[in-house]
Amino acid sequence: MSVENPIAKVRGMGSSGGGVSHWRSQRYSSLLLIPLSLWLLWLGVSIAGADFETVKSAMSQPFNSGMAIMLAVTMFYHTQLGLQVVIEDYVHIPALEVGLLLLVRVACLAAILISVIAALILVLGA
Amino acid sequence: MQKDGILMNKRPMSPYMLGPYYKFQITSLLSILNRLTGVFLSVITAPLLMWWLVSLASGAEAFARLSSWLSGFAGLLVIAASVFCLSFHLFAGIRHLIWDVGWMMEIPQVRLSGWLTVVASLLLTLLVVGAGL
């Protein structure tokens, strides 16, 4: 038995207070990802087996480029939120948990920047 | 946490309670599948999509290298698995959004929407993979 007052435990281990905004961000991004995922599947079917020039010209169209940019931003944001929950649920070694959470954040931010730059290169024809 | 005694340590931790403590059923199976497909999409599919876009922007040589790998056996397997994971996560996500507005919360409805999710994601996977071949 511990002699520690329960309120002390709550102060140290209780709610972070950020749960609602995390939940909402996950739902809003998932709503956006419904049409974006359908676009991705359609794109995949329409360019399957096509050669470099065909695919390049498809991704140089402003519509496809814009969808790719919106997909990259929303998908990697949703990925960060989802992996965060998985790590928080299953990784119980504090140093590893914090390290993984940081890694996921940095990797998702980098992935957004890289994808957006690639999509801009294709549409602007650099 | 451990100081509180043996009882705390003997509690089954998620997700290890699924096999020995709870009977597997459509609800828990789809719950863990939604996570697993989400992790697959995060670790494999999303980075692959980024890599694909980067190699397309890099030029014909880089794109040809990725294309030849993707058209091999391992590549096709990754694509098919990605299509299934995306289809499943899409419909399972829609199921969650429906719950979020308070609909379909009764157990028979939850089971029904679970089976609909399975059927719809398999059909979409077959449709996309079939059309892409």
Task: Give the biggest sheet of chain B.
Answer: none
Assembly form of the protein: heterodimer
Tell me the number of strands of chain B.
0
* CA-based gyration radius of chain B: 20 Å
Q: Tell me the count of domains of chain A.
A: 1
In total, the number of strands of chain A is 0
Strand content of chain A: under 5%
What fold name stands as the CATH topology of chain A?
A: 3 helical TM bundles of succinate and fumarate reductases
Strand percent estimate of chain B: under 5%
The CATH first-level class of chain B comes to: Mainly Alpha
Q: CATH topology of chain B, anyone?
A: 3 helical TM bundles of succinate and fumarate reductases
Q: Show unreliable segments of chain B.
A: none
Q: How many H/I helical runs of chain A?
A: 5
Inertia-based shape of chain B: elongated
Give the averaged pLDDT of chain B, no decimals.
91
Structural class of chain B: mainly alpha
Q: How would you sum up the global shape of chain A?
A: elongated
Tell me the greatest interface.
A-B, 38 and 39 residues
